[in-house]
Write a structure and sequence with these properties.
heterodimer, B: 274 residues, mainly alpha
Chain lengths: 259, 274
Protein backbone atom coordinates (compact mmCIF):
# COMPACT_ATOMS: atom_id res chain seq x y z
CA UNK A 1 0.00 0.00 0.00
CA UNK A 2 1.27 3.43 -0.88
CA UNK A 3 1.99 5.11 2.48
CA UNK A 4 0.78 8.46 1.12
CA UNK A 5 -2.68 7.00 0.48
CA UNK A 6 -3.14 6.25 4.17
CA UNK A 7 -4.81 8.76 6.47
CA UNK A 8 -1.41 9.48 8.04
CA UNK A 9 0.23 10.00 4.65
CA UNK A 10 -2.53 12.23 3.34
CA UNK A 11 -2.37 14.38 6.49
CA UNK A 12 1.41 14.73 6.20
CA UNK A 13 1.17 15.66 2.53
CA UNK A 14 -1.59 18.19 3.19
CA UNK A 15 0.53 19.89 5.89
CA UNK A 16 3.57 19.85 3.62
CA UNK A 17 1.57 21.25 0.72
CA UNK A 18 0.23 24.07 2.88
CA UNK A 19 3.79 25.02 3.84
CA UNK A 20 5.03 24.86 0.28
CA UNK A 21 2.05 26.83 -0.98
CA UNK A 22 2.76 29.59 1.54
CA UNK A 23 6.42 29.54 0.55
CA UNK A 24 5.60 29.89 -3.15
CA UNK A 25 2.85 32.48 -2.84
CA UNK A 26 4.63 34.64 -0.26
CA UNK A 27 8.21 35.23 -1.42
CA UNK A 28 9.02 37.00 1.88
CA UNK A 29 8.93 33.56 3.52
CA UNK A 30 11.22 31.95 0.95
CA UNK A 31 13.68 34.70 0.15
CA UNK A 32 15.60 34.83 3.46
CA UNK A 33 16.31 31.09 3.36
CA UNK A 34 17.31 31.39 -0.29
CA UNK A 35 19.40 34.55 -0.05
CA UNK A 36 21.30 33.87 3.18
CA UNK A 37 23.33 30.89 1.85
CA UNK A 38 24.09 32.79 -1.35
CA UNK A 39 25.31 35.79 0.64
CA UNK A 40 27.46 33.52 2.77
CA UNK A 41 28.86 31.82 -0.31
CA UNK A 42 29.62 35.07 -2.12
CA UNK A 43 31.18 36.64 0.96
CA UNK A 44 33.28 33.65 1.97
CA UNK A 45 34.28 32.28 -1.43
CA UNK A 46 34.73 35.75 -2.90
CA UNK A 47 36.18 37.67 -0.01
CA UNK A 48 38.24 35.10 1.83
CA UNK A 49 39.82 33.11 -0.97
CA UNK A 50 43.21 34.67 -0.16
CA UNK A 51 43.14 32.63 3.06
CA UNK A 52 43.81 29.53 0.97
CA UNK A 53 47.31 30.95 0.39
CA UNK A 54 48.06 30.64 4.11
CA UNK A 55 50.77 28.10 4.95
CA UNK A 56 49.45 24.53 5.44
CA UNK A 57 46.07 25.23 3.85
CA UNK A 58 45.54 21.74 2.52
CA UNK A 59 42.59 21.85 0.13
CA UNK A 60 42.71 22.27 -3.64
CA UNK A 61 40.06 24.95 -4.21
CA UNK A 62 38.59 27.54 -1.82
CA UNK A 63 35.36 28.03 -3.78
CA UNK A 64 34.65 24.29 -3.53
CA UNK A 65 35.65 24.39 0.15
CA UNK A 66 32.97 27.03 0.80
CA UNK A 67 30.40 25.43 -1.51
CA UNK A 68 30.22 22.39 0.76
CA UNK A 69 29.85 24.59 3.84
CA UNK A 70 26.97 26.47 2.24
CA UNK A 71 25.27 23.18 1.27
CA UNK A 72 25.39 22.02 4.89
CA UNK A 73 24.33 25.44 6.13
CA UNK A 74 21.30 25.36 3.80
CA UNK A 75 20.43 21.92 5.14
CA UNK A 76 20.43 23.24 8.70
CA UNK A 77 18.59 26.45 7.93
CA UNK A 78 15.96 24.59 5.89
CA UNK A 79 15.03 22.89 9.16
CA UNK A 80 15.35 26.06 11.22
CA UNK A 81 13.03 28.08 8.98
CA UNK A 82 10.46 25.27 9.10
CA UNK A 83 10.67 25.54 12.88
CA UNK A 84 9.72 29.22 12.60
CA UNK A 85 6.62 28.18 10.63
CA UNK A 86 5.66 25.65 13.30
CA UNK A 87 6.04 28.29 16.03
CA UNK A 88 3.96 30.76 14.00
CA UNK A 89 1.26 28.12 13.45
CA UNK A 90 1.06 27.51 17.20
CA UNK A 91 0.99 31.20 17.98
CA UNK A 92 -1.75 31.81 15.42
CA UNK A 93 -3.86 28.88 16.65
CA UNK A 94 -3.68 26.93 13.38
CA UNK A 95 -1.57 24.16 14.91
CA UNK A 96 -4.30 23.49 17.48
CA UNK A 97 -6.79 22.93 14.67
CA UNK A 98 -4.30 20.63 12.94
CA UNK A 99 -3.97 18.62 16.14
CA UNK A 100 -7.74 18.29 16.40
CA UNK A 101 -7.94 17.11 12.80
CA UNK A 102 -5.18 14.49 13.05
CA UNK A 103 -5.64 11.27 14.97
CA UNK A 104 -1.93 10.44 14.63
CA UNK A 105 -0.21 13.74 15.25
CA UNK A 106 3.19 12.46 14.21
CA UNK A 107 1.86 13.24 10.73
CA UNK A 108 2.25 16.92 11.62
CA UNK A 109 5.99 16.49 12.17
CA UNK A 110 6.34 14.43 9.01
CA UNK A 111 4.43 17.07 7.03
CA UNK A 112 6.70 19.85 8.20
CA UNK A 113 9.74 17.63 7.52
CA UNK A 114 8.65 17.07 3.92
CA UNK A 115 8.22 20.83 3.43
CA UNK A 116 11.60 21.54 5.05
CA UNK A 117 13.31 19.05 2.76
CA UNK A 118 11.60 20.50 -0.32
CA UNK A 119 12.72 23.98 0.70
CA UNK A 120 16.29 22.75 1.25
CA UNK A 121 16.35 21.00 -2.15
CA UNK A 122 15.29 24.23 -3.83
CA UNK A 123 18.01 26.17 -1.98
CA UNK A 124 20.64 23.53 -2.81
CA UNK A 125 19.71 23.78 -6.49
CA UNK A 126 20.08 27.56 -6.53
CA UNK A 127 23.27 27.53 -4.46
CA UNK A 128 24.75 24.83 -6.72
CA UNK A 129 24.06 26.88 -9.84
CA UNK A 130 25.73 29.92 -8.24
CA UNK A 131 28.69 27.90 -6.92
CA UNK A 132 29.35 25.89 -10.07
CA UNK A 133 29.09 28.95 -12.28
CA UNK A 134 31.59 30.75 -10.07
CA UNK A 135 34.21 28.03 -10.25
CA UNK A 136 33.44 25.36 -7.66
CA UNK A 137 34.89 22.04 -8.82
CA UNK A 138 33.09 18.71 -8.47
CA UNK A 139 35.71 15.97 -8.88
CA UNK A 140 33.87 13.21 -7.03
CA UNK A 141 31.90 10.49 -8.83
CA UNK A 142 28.23 9.55 -8.54
CA UNK A 143 28.70 7.60 -5.31
CA UNK A 144 30.60 10.48 -3.75
CA UNK A 145 27.85 12.93 -4.66
CA UNK A 146 25.25 10.52 -3.32
CA UNK A 147 27.21 10.49 -0.06
CA UNK A 148 27.07 14.30 0.13
CA UNK A 149 23.34 14.21 -0.60
CA UNK A 150 22.71 11.64 2.15
CA UNK A 151 24.67 13.67 4.69
CA UNK A 152 22.87 16.90 3.72
CA UNK A 153 19.41 15.30 3.79
CA UNK A 154 20.11 13.68 7.18
CA UNK A 155 21.35 17.00 8.53
CA UNK A 156 18.23 18.74 7.25
CA UNK A 157 15.98 16.19 8.96
CA UNK A 158 17.93 16.46 12.23
CA UNK A 159 17.70 20.28 12.15
CA UNK A 160 13.97 20.16 11.41
CA UNK A 161 13.38 17.75 14.31
CA UNK A 162 15.37 19.99 16.66
CA UNK A 163 13.45 23.09 15.55
CA UNK A 164 10.18 21.20 15.76
CA UNK A 165 10.88 20.10 19.34
CA UNK A 166 11.75 23.63 20.37
CA UNK A 167 8.77 25.22 18.60
CA UNK A 168 6.32 22.69 20.05
CA UNK A 169 7.61 23.28 23.55
CA UNK A 170 7.43 27.07 23.42
CA UNK A 171 4.57 27.48 20.88
CA UNK A 172 5.38 31.13 20.19
CA UNK A 173 7.44 33.09 17.70
CA UNK A 174 9.55 34.17 20.69
CA UNK A 175 11.14 30.74 20.26
CA UNK A 176 12.81 31.89 17.02
CA UNK A 177 16.14 32.96 18.59
CA UNK A 178 16.24 29.76 20.64
CA UNK A 179 15.80 27.74 17.45
CA UNK A 180 18.25 29.76 15.40
CA UNK A 181 21.03 30.37 17.88
CA UNK A 182 22.07 26.77 18.67
CA UNK A 183 22.01 25.96 14.95
CA UNK A 184 24.14 29.00 14.22
CA UNK A 185 26.56 28.18 17.06
CA UNK A 186 27.04 24.64 15.79
CA UNK A 187 27.62 25.80 12.23
CA UNK A 188 30.06 28.58 13.08
CA UNK A 189 32.18 26.50 15.46
CA UNK A 190 32.84 23.95 12.72
CA UNK A 191 35.79 24.49 10.34
CA UNK A 192 34.04 27.18 8.29
CA UNK A 193 36.91 29.28 6.94
CA UNK A 194 39.93 27.00 7.04
CA UNK A 195 40.66 23.29 7.60
CA UNK A 196 40.69 22.20 11.23
CA UNK A 197 44.50 22.14 11.69
CA UNK A 198 44.62 25.90 10.94
CA UNK A 199 41.97 26.89 13.49
CA UNK A 200 43.37 28.37 16.68
CA UNK A 201 42.07 28.95 20.21
CA UNK A 202 38.84 27.70 21.71
CA UNK A 203 37.12 27.14 18.36
CA UNK A 204 39.78 24.54 17.55
CA UNK A 205 38.78 22.56 20.64
CA UNK A 206 35.04 22.98 20.08
CA UNK A 207 35.29 22.00 16.41
CA UNK A 208 36.90 18.68 17.37
CA UNK A 209 33.71 17.71 19.21
CA UNK A 210 31.22 19.44 16.94
CA UNK A 211 29.13 16.89 15.00
CA UNK A 212 28.89 19.28 12.04
CA UNK A 213 32.69 19.06 11.67
CA UNK A 214 32.53 15.40 10.64
CA UNK A 215 29.80 16.10 8.08
CA UNK A 216 31.57 19.14 6.68
CA UNK A 217 34.92 17.36 6.38
CA UNK A 218 33.30 14.30 4.83
CA UNK A 219 31.42 16.48 2.34
CA UNK A 220 34.58 18.35 1.41
CA UNK A 221 36.47 15.10 0.91
CA UNK A 222 33.69 13.52 -1.15
CA UNK A 223 33.31 16.47 -3.51
CA UNK A 224 36.96 16.29 -4.54
CA UNK A 225 36.73 12.51 -4.98
CA UNK A 226 38.91 11.65 -2.01
CA UNK A 227 36.39 10.30 0.50
CA UNK A 228 37.46 10.32 4.14
CA UNK A 229 35.29 9.18 7.03
CA UNK A 230 32.09 9.51 5.00
CA UNK A 231 30.44 6.56 6.73
CA UNK A 232 31.33 8.02 10.11
CA UNK A 233 29.68 11.31 9.09
CA UNK A 234 26.55 9.49 7.92
CA UNK A 235 26.45 7.53 11.18
CA UNK A 236 26.78 10.73 13.22
CA UNK A 237 23.99 12.35 11.18
CA UNK A 238 21.78 9.29 11.72
CA UNK A 239 22.52 9.46 15.45
CA UNK A 240 21.52 13.12 15.47
CA UNK A 241 18.25 12.22 13.77
CA UNK A 242 17.52 9.59 16.41
CA UNK A 243 18.23 12.00 19.27
CA UNK A 244 16.29 14.86 17.68
CA UNK A 245 13.35 12.58 16.82
CA UNK A 246 12.98 11.86 20.53
CA UNK A 247 13.24 15.61 21.24
CA UNK A 248 10.57 16.41 18.63
CA UNK A 249 8.27 13.59 19.72
CA UNK A 250 8.38 14.65 23.38
CA UNK A 251 7.78 18.23 22.22
CA UNK A 252 4.68 17.08 20.40
CA UNK A 253 3.45 15.30 23.55
CA UNK A 254 3.97 18.54 25.51
CA UNK A 255 2.02 20.50 22.92
CA UNK A 256 -0.78 17.93 23.12
CA UNK A 257 -0.80 18.13 26.90
CA UNK A 258 -0.96 21.92 26.74
CA UNK A 259 -4.07 21.65 24.55
CA UNK B 1 4.33 60.58 28.27
CA UNK B 2 1.42 61.56 26.07
CA UNK B 3 0.35 63.96 28.73
CA UNK B 4 3.75 65.57 28.76
CA UNK B 5 3.66 65.95 25.00
CA UNK B 6 0.18 67.41 25.11
CA UNK B 7 1.27 70.08 27.59
CA UNK B 8 4.19 71.26 25.43
CA UNK B 9 4.16 75.08 25.34
CA UNK B 10 2.26 76.17 22.24
CA UNK B 11 3.58 79.67 21.57
CA UNK B 12 6.85 81.54 20.92
CA UNK B 13 9.97 80.37 19.09
CA UNK B 14 11.86 79.76 22.34
CA UNK B 15 8.93 77.95 23.87
CA UNK B 16 8.49 75.87 20.72
CA UNK B 17 12.17 74.98 20.78
CA UNK B 18 12.01 73.89 24.41
CA UNK B 19 8.78 72.00 23.62
CA UNK B 20 10.45 70.16 20.78
CA UNK B 21 13.46 69.39 22.95
CA UNK B 22 11.29 68.01 25.73
CA UNK B 23 9.42 65.89 23.17
CA UNK B 24 12.74 64.54 21.95
CA UNK B 25 13.76 63.92 25.57
CA UNK B 26 10.61 61.99 26.42
CA UNK B 27 10.74 59.92 23.26
CA UNK B 28 14.45 59.22 23.74
CA UNK B 29 13.78 58.14 27.33
CA UNK B 30 10.97 55.89 26.15
CA UNK B 31 13.16 54.44 23.43
CA UNK B 32 15.98 53.66 25.88
CA UNK B 33 13.72 52.22 28.59
CA UNK B 34 11.90 50.15 26.00
CA UNK B 35 15.17 48.70 24.72
CA UNK B 36 16.37 47.91 28.24
CA UNK B 37 13.07 46.16 29.01
CA UNK B 38 13.63 43.75 26.15
CA UNK B 39 16.63 41.73 27.32
CA UNK B 40 16.41 39.53 24.23
CA UNK B 41 17.21 42.52 22.04
CA UNK B 42 19.97 43.83 24.32
CA UNK B 43 21.56 40.42 24.71
CA UNK B 44 21.37 39.48 21.05
CA UNK B 45 22.84 42.82 19.97
CA UNK B 46 25.68 42.36 22.48
CA UNK B 47 26.26 38.63 22.35
CA UNK B 48 25.87 37.92 18.65
CA UNK B 49 28.62 40.29 17.41
CA UNK B 50 30.92 39.20 20.26
CA UNK B 51 30.31 35.56 19.43
CA UNK B 52 31.18 36.19 15.79
CA UNK B 53 34.27 38.09 16.93
CA UNK B 54 35.35 35.11 19.02
CA UNK B 55 34.69 32.63 16.22
CA UNK B 56 36.31 34.71 13.48
CA UNK B 57 39.38 35.56 15.53
CA UNK B 58 40.03 31.84 16.04
CA UNK B 59 38.79 30.58 12.70
CA UNK B 60 40.63 33.12 10.60
CA UNK B 61 43.76 33.43 12.76
CA UNK B 62 45.75 31.87 9.92
CA UNK B 63 45.10 34.98 7.82
CA UNK B 64 47.71 36.96 9.79
CA UNK B 65 50.35 34.79 8.07
CA UNK B 66 49.41 36.25 4.69
CA UNK B 67 52.12 38.59 3.38
CA UNK B 68 51.08 42.21 3.93
CA UNK B 69 48.49 41.53 6.64
CA UNK B 70 48.51 44.70 8.74
CA UNK B 71 48.65 43.17 12.23
CA UNK B 72 49.72 39.98 13.96
CA UNK B 73 46.41 39.79 15.84
CA UNK B 74 43.31 38.81 13.91
CA UNK B 75 41.24 39.68 17.00
CA UNK B 76 42.35 43.31 16.67
CA UNK B 77 41.62 43.25 12.96
CA UNK B 78 38.16 41.67 13.38
CA UNK B 79 37.12 44.03 16.19
CA UNK B 80 36.46 46.79 13.64
CA UNK B 81 33.72 44.70 12.05
CA UNK B 82 32.12 44.04 15.43
CA UNK B 83 31.22 47.73 15.85
CA UNK B 84 29.49 47.63 12.47
CA UNK B 85 27.53 44.51 13.40
CA UNK B 86 26.32 46.28 16.52
CA UNK B 87 25.16 49.20 14.37
CA UNK B 88 23.15 46.85 12.18
CA UNK B 89 21.38 45.47 15.24
CA UNK B 90 20.57 49.05 16.22
CA UNK B 91 19.08 49.51 12.76
CA UNK B 92 16.73 46.61 13.22
CA UNK B 93 15.90 47.71 16.78
CA UNK B 94 14.89 51.18 15.63
CA UNK B 95 12.83 49.85 12.72
CA UNK B 96 11.17 47.19 14.84
CA UNK B 97 10.24 49.71 17.56
CA UNK B 98 8.53 52.16 15.24
CA UNK B 99 6.81 49.32 13.36
CA UNK B 100 5.44 47.98 16.65
CA UNK B 101 4.23 51.47 17.57
CA UNK B 102 2.35 51.58 14.28
CA UNK B 103 0.95 48.05 14.62
CA UNK B 104 -0.23 48.59 18.20
CA UNK B 105 -1.86 51.94 17.48
CA UNK B 106 0.55 53.98 19.63
CA UNK B 107 1.59 55.92 16.55
CA UNK B 108 -2.05 56.91 15.91
CA UNK B 109 -2.36 58.16 19.48
CA UNK B 110 0.87 60.17 19.09
CA UNK B 111 -0.70 61.92 16.13
CA UNK B 112 -3.42 63.26 18.38
CA UNK B 113 -0.76 65.12 20.37
CA UNK B 114 1.15 68.23 19.23
CA UNK B 115 4.21 66.02 18.67
CA UNK B 116 6.43 67.22 15.84
CA UNK B 117 7.70 64.78 13.22
CA UNK B 118 11.37 65.71 13.64
CA UNK B 119 10.99 65.15 17.40
CA UNK B 120 9.72 61.64 16.79
CA UNK B 121 12.68 60.83 14.55
CA UNK B 122 15.22 62.55 16.82
CA UNK B 123 13.77 60.85 19.92
CA UNK B 124 14.04 57.40 18.39
CA UNK B 125 17.55 58.11 17.13
CA UNK B 126 18.66 59.42 20.53
CA UNK B 127 17.76 56.04 21.99
CA UNK B 128 19.74 54.35 19.24
CA UNK B 129 22.72 56.61 19.97
CA UNK B 130 22.77 55.55 23.62
CA UNK B 131 22.50 51.92 22.58
CA UNK B 132 25.37 52.44 20.12
CA UNK B 133 27.58 53.97 22.80
CA UNK B 134 26.95 51.12 25.25
CA UNK B 135 27.51 48.51 22.58
CA UNK B 136 30.71 50.23 21.45
CA UNK B 137 32.01 50.36 25.01
CA UNK B 138 31.16 46.70 25.61
CA UNK B 139 32.80 45.52 22.39
CA UNK B 140 35.90 47.57 23.07
CA UNK B 141 36.28 46.38 26.67
CA UNK B 142 35.75 42.74 25.73
CA UNK B 143 38.15 43.06 22.80
CA UNK B 144 40.86 44.64 24.94
CA UNK B 145 40.30 42.10 27.72
CA UNK B 146 40.97 39.30 25.25
CA UNK B 147 44.15 40.85 23.90
CA UNK B 148 43.15 43.25 21.13
CA UNK B 149 45.44 46.28 20.64
CA UNK B 150 44.33 49.91 20.69
CA UNK B 151 47.09 51.80 18.95
CA UNK B 152 45.41 55.22 19.25
CA UNK B 153 45.23 55.03 23.06
CA UNK B 154 42.54 56.48 25.34
CA UNK B 155 41.71 59.33 22.95
CA UNK B 156 41.27 56.73 20.24
CA UNK B 157 38.83 54.84 22.47
CA UNK B 158 36.74 58.01 22.79
CA UNK B 159 36.75 58.46 19.03
CA UNK B 160 35.69 54.82 18.61
CA UNK B 161 32.73 55.42 20.95
CA UNK B 162 31.77 58.60 19.09
CA UNK B 163 31.98 56.81 15.75
CA UNK B 164 30.03 53.86 17.16
CA UNK B 165 27.24 56.24 18.20
CA UNK B 166 27.27 58.03 14.87
CA UNK B 167 27.24 54.82 12.81
CA UNK B 168 24.42 53.40 14.97
CA UNK B 169 22.37 56.57 14.51
CA UNK B 170 23.08 56.62 10.77
CA UNK B 171 21.93 53.03 10.30
CA UNK B 172 19.17 53.58 12.85
CA UNK B 173 17.72 56.23 10.55
CA UNK B 174 17.60 53.62 7.77
CA UNK B 175 15.82 51.26 10.17
CA UNK B 176 13.33 53.98 11.03
CA UNK B 177 12.63 54.49 7.34
CA UNK B 178 12.00 50.77 6.92
CA UNK B 179 9.70 50.67 9.95
CA UNK B 180 7.76 53.74 8.86
CA UNK B 181 7.43 52.57 5.26
CA UNK B 182 6.29 49.03 6.07
CA UNK B 183 4.62 49.50 9.45
CA UNK B 184 5.31 45.82 10.02
CA UNK B 185 7.85 44.30 12.40
CA UNK B 186 8.15 41.08 10.42
CA UNK B 187 8.92 43.03 7.26
CA UNK B 188 11.65 44.93 9.12
CA UNK B 189 13.13 41.64 10.35
CA UNK B 190 12.90 40.25 6.83
CA UNK B 191 15.09 43.10 5.60
CA UNK B 192 17.85 42.17 8.06
CA UNK B 193 19.63 39.77 5.67
CA UNK B 194 19.64 42.47 3.01
CA UNK B 195 21.43 44.87 5.36
CA UNK B 196 23.75 42.08 6.40
CA UNK B 197 24.87 41.84 2.78
CA UNK B 198 26.57 45.20 3.23
CA UNK B 199 28.70 43.62 5.96
CA UNK B 200 29.41 40.48 3.95
CA UNK B 201 30.48 42.46 0.91
CA UNK B 202 32.83 44.75 2.79
CA UNK B 203 36.50 44.59 3.72
CA UNK B 204 35.46 43.31 7.15
CA UNK B 205 37.24 39.96 6.95
CA UNK B 206 40.36 40.85 4.97
CA UNK B 207 42.09 44.11 4.00
CA UNK B 208 41.02 45.27 0.55
CA UNK B 209 44.50 44.90 -0.93
CA UNK B 210 44.60 41.24 0.12
CA UNK B 211 41.28 40.26 -1.45
CA UNK B 212 42.15 37.84 -4.21
CA UNK B 213 39.04 38.20 -6.39
CA UNK B 214 39.07 41.40 -8.43
CA UNK B 215 35.27 41.69 -8.59
CA UNK B 216 35.03 41.34 -4.81
CA UNK B 217 37.67 44.01 -4.34
CA UNK B 218 35.64 46.34 -6.58
CA UNK B 219 32.48 45.61 -4.58
CA UNK B 220 34.23 46.27 -1.28
CA UNK B 221 35.67 49.50 -2.67
CA UNK B 222 32.25 50.90 -3.61
CA UNK B 223 30.60 49.61 -0.41
CA UNK B 224 30.58 52.46 2.15
CA UNK B 225 30.55 49.94 5.01
CA UNK B 226 34.17 49.11 4.11
CA UNK B 227 35.18 52.67 5.01
CA UNK B 228 33.27 52.59 8.30
CA UNK B 229 34.97 49.33 9.29
CA UNK B 230 38.36 50.69 8.19
CA UNK B 231 37.88 53.84 10.29
CA UNK B 232 37.36 51.74 13.44
CA UNK B 233 40.20 49.46 12.43
CA UNK B 234 42.61 52.32 11.78
CA UNK B 235 42.36 53.44 15.41
CA UNK B 236 42.96 49.90 16.62
CA UNK B 237 45.84 49.00 14.30
CA UNK B 238 47.47 52.15 12.87
CA UNK B 239 46.88 54.82 15.50
CA UNK B 240 45.77 58.11 13.94
CA UNK B 241 44.98 57.86 10.24
CA UNK B 242 43.32 61.09 9.13
CA UNK B 243 42.15 59.76 5.77
CA UNK B 244 40.52 56.64 7.21
CA UNK B 245 38.78 58.69 9.93
CA UNK B 246 37.62 61.36 7.48
CA UNK B 247 36.16 58.69 5.20
CA UNK B 248 34.53 56.87 8.13
CA UNK B 249 32.94 59.96 9.66
CA UNK B 250 32.11 61.36 6.22
CA UNK B 251 30.26 58.26 5.05
CA UNK B 252 28.47 57.98 8.43
CA UNK B 253 27.22 61.56 8.11
CA UNK B 254 26.18 60.98 4.52
CA UNK B 255 24.21 57.87 5.46
CA UNK B 256 22.66 59.77 8.38
CA UNK B 257 21.61 62.62 6.09
CA UNK B 258 20.16 60.20 3.56
CA UNK B 259 18.42 58.12 6.25
CA UNK B 260 16.97 61.15 8.03
CA UNK B 261 15.67 62.55 4.77
CA UNK B 262 14.09 59.21 3.84
CA UNK B 263 12.66 58.76 7.36
CA UNK B 264 11.13 62.26 7.29
CA UNK B 265 9.52 61.54 3.93
CA UNK B 266 8.26 58.15 5.16
CA UNK B 267 6.87 59.78 8.31
CA UNK B 268 5.02 62.34 6.23
CA UNK B 269 3.49 59.62 4.08
CA UNK B 270 2.58 57.57 7.14
CA UNK B 271 0.90 60.54 8.82
CA UNK B 272 -1.13 61.23 5.67
CA UNK B 273 -2.13 57.57 5.52
CA UNK B 274 -3.33 57.43 9.12
Amino acid sequence: MNPFESRFGRSALAIAWRQLHTMITKPAFLLPSLLMPIFFFVAFAGGLSAVSAAPDFDYPDYTTFQYVFVLMQSAVFGGVFAGFSIAADFEGGFARRMMLANRNRNAIIVGYAIAALARAILVWAVVSVVALSSGAEVLGGGVDLLGIAVIAVFLNIAALLFACGMAMRLRTMQAAPLIQLPAFLLLMTAPVYVPRPLIEGWVATVSDFNPITAMLEAGRSLIIGAPADALLAIAIAAGLIAAMATWAWTGLRRAEAAG
Amino acid sequence: MNGAIATAPPAGIGAQRSGTLSQVGYLAQRSIVRTLRQPAIVISSMIFPLFLLAVNSSGLAAAVNLPGFPTDSYLTFALGLTFMQGALFATMGAGQSIAEDIQRGFFNRLQLTPLRGPALIAGQLAGVAVQGAFQGLAYLLVGLAFGAHLEAGVAGALVILALSMLVSVAFGSLGLTLGLRTGNGEAVQGAFPLLFVLLFLSSGALPRDLIANDWFEVVTTINPVSYLVEAFRSLLINGWDGEALALGFGFSLAILALGTFAATAALKTRMERT
